Every structure is written in C-alpha cells, then in structure tokens.
Amino acid sequence: MHLDFEVVDLQAAVVHALELGARESGHQPQENVRVMLDPAGHPFCLYMDSSNS
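Predicted structure:
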C-alpha cells in the first residue's frame, strides 16, 4: 500500500515527518511532491495541490 497525504505547507510537513523518523527519498518527481520513507523504508508521499498555490 502506498499513502499520499495532502498538506497545506509542504516544507513544514517534511520537517515534521523527519522529526518523527522518516527520511527523504533520493527520487523527488515533482516540485509539489516529496517522496518520504518511513523508518522501515516504506514510501509515502506528501504533496500540495498545485492548483491552490
């Protein structure tokens, strides 16, 4: 299962995920998306709706 989380502030969401033990993936496909890996290495995405920016 892959989870995508829509966030209001992408940078703040990345910082929060990092504080909780996630890390950023080496592959970042888009400016408004951050691929993250949980502590076990499972990917998930944080994204901002580009139509709202």
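Summary: The chain has a mean pLDDT of 93.
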